[in-house]
Structure to design on (344 residues):
């Protein structure tokens, strides 16, 4: 009986709603957009520390994940992530083009998000045909990976003598 | 009627359970622990890029947040975050001491987590007497802030010629 009560309580505990998770993601995307904007044009494409990728290449990865990612979460149709130059997004040659693509994905996420079937978040999926786990863990991975690479962009900016946007500022 | 159905569906959608969020956090903490371990002793305390803090100081911040943070989420009792040398944790003088404190906090989180009142996650709190919002957003902030600073540690390591642990490896 005690087990049953615990199970019921756990099942009805709302940690975060789908709408809140969308807002959380878009708050991070808004901050990442401002980090892209903070880079000088040339350094965005070329600056590197310790043999790591320029911030541009990390951002292309984030775009490659977010767009097909939200589509996959909604439909559960997946294809493999492109590698390196195989990304159609990697043809962007200016920060402006990258930001434009970024904004398209932001709008796409907003319009597709309400179509996520409610049971999907807890359903085990295989995102990008490779990563098996509940869909919520894929979504958190998309967000965490963005925070991770954006923070590397922060170090690039600091090393270039540029003050990055505040980490806690997620207004959009 | 359609609105009522939607509201009911939203209220019962489980995005992530408390247990899953705990596991998610501890997975990140396990990775951060391995990033601390990857630093050479001296560089952990002194290495810096672009005028940023040494990784040690960032880790002390994470410890100052996580310990009192989980206590505050459970009890809703808060005090302000210490600044700089005011942290009792900043007296650690070796990596070993920092890792020991890290492990104590890990155990504390595991033991206190089940005591979080189920309604707390959605309750508006004022964490550290400063940051107002639903408790889930504070918890996500703790995690996001850890990912953010750990990723800066990744750049420090790469710049030192050291291969960091894989970002996706959250086994613990």
């Amino acid at each position: 009986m005690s087990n049953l009560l615990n199970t019921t309580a756990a099942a009805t505990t709302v940690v975060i709603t789908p709408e809140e998770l969308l807002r959380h993601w878009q708050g991070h995307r808004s901050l990442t957009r401002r980090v892209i904007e903070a880079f000088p044009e040339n350094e965005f494409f070329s600056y590197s520390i310790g043999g790591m990728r320029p911030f541009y290449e990390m951002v292309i990865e984030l775009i490659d994940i977010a767009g097909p990612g939200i589509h996959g979460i909604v439909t559960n149709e997946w294809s493999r992530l492109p590698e390196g130059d195989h990304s159609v997004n990697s043809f962007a040659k200016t920060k402006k083009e990258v930001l434009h693509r970024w904004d398209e994905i932001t709008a796409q996420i907003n319009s597709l998000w309400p179509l996520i079937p409610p049971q999907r978040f807890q359903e085990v999926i295989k995102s990008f045909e490779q990563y098996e786990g509940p869909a919520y863990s894929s979504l958190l991975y998309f967000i965490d990976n963005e925070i991770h690479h954006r923070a590397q962009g922060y170090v690039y900016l600091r090393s270039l003598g540029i003050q990055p946007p505040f980490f806690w500022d997620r207004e959009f």
